[in-house]
Amino acid sequence: MSDRKYITLKPSGDKIPLVGFGTARISPAETAQVIYDAIKVGNRLIDGALCYGNEAEVGKGVKRAIAEGIVKREELFIVGKLWNNFHGKEHVKPIFQKTLDNYGLDYIDLYLVHFPLAIEYVEPSQPFGFLNSNGELKLAKAPLQETWRELESLVDSGVIRNIGISNFNVQSILDLLTYARIRPSVLEIEHHPYLQQSRLIHWVRSQGIQVIAYASFGNAVFEQVPQGTQHLENLMKNPIIVSIAEKHHRNSGQILLAWAVQHEVIVIPKTVNIDRMKSNLAIDHIQLDEDDLEKISQLDANARFNDFFENTYGFNLPLFN
């Protein structure tokens, strides 16, 4: 359980902050300063990934904050992710070392399998994504069991403290749990009032797995949204969220974060604005009442905005089904 600021992870017993900071979609040119600012205002959880293209700059911001005595390394909780091109058992350790070098650290606190999807290997010096240079999605024969064994070995060696998963559904997790010697500590998923995923969250919690939410502000985060979701109002401007914010004398973003945290879901909002960084952290004393929670529960539309396989690439891969 949490003390409103932290949740304890299994099996390590490490404490992860309930409110952290995301690094997706921050340009490399400004990332180092943004991360330094985020730590300076009080963020202690930094969620990054190799595919965001700014890992090394995240590392520079972290290193500066530590060097200036703003924070000690052990007070930070640093997250990295294994991208799809590198699931092959021979690639896991070298690509993790790249992340470790980018961050400039001796260990990271949590390393996630970014997607339950293995695609053909590319050299890390080359651009990587979901498609190869011919615009094709080429799957790789890299069983997750072999990938997971490599991650467990990295935990054994002390360079990763916790391992977890991202964008996995129940079926994928069920399979993983049949062979995991070290069970996943965390599942990271898209989560907001338009996509509440209550059954999934309840089940993974029953398995001792905690949940990190990305895209806590829903469609306000994305420039494009998939077909069938365009009718949904910008979540930050939704009248129900706005009215609850006015009731509590807070802003909409704070209400959305407080709603997740009240359900013990970890949040990682991203902003380059220092005032919003402070605002996102200042949610400790927001307590939504039953009326608030009921109104927000009615907003659930099973609307997934990060459905990039169809929206961005235009091909049919129902990964989340």
UniProtKB/TrEMBL annotation:
Name of the protein described by the UniProt record: NADP-dependent oxidoreductase domain-containing protein
Keyword Oxidoreductase: yes
Catalytic residues (UniProt): Y52
Span of domain NADP-dependent oxidoreductase: 21-300
Lineage, top ranks: Eukaryota, Fungi, Fungi incertae sedis, Mucoromycota, Mucoromycotina
Domain of life assignment: Eukaryota
Record organism: Parasitella parasitica
Keywords: Oxidoreductase
UniProt binding sites for substrate: H114
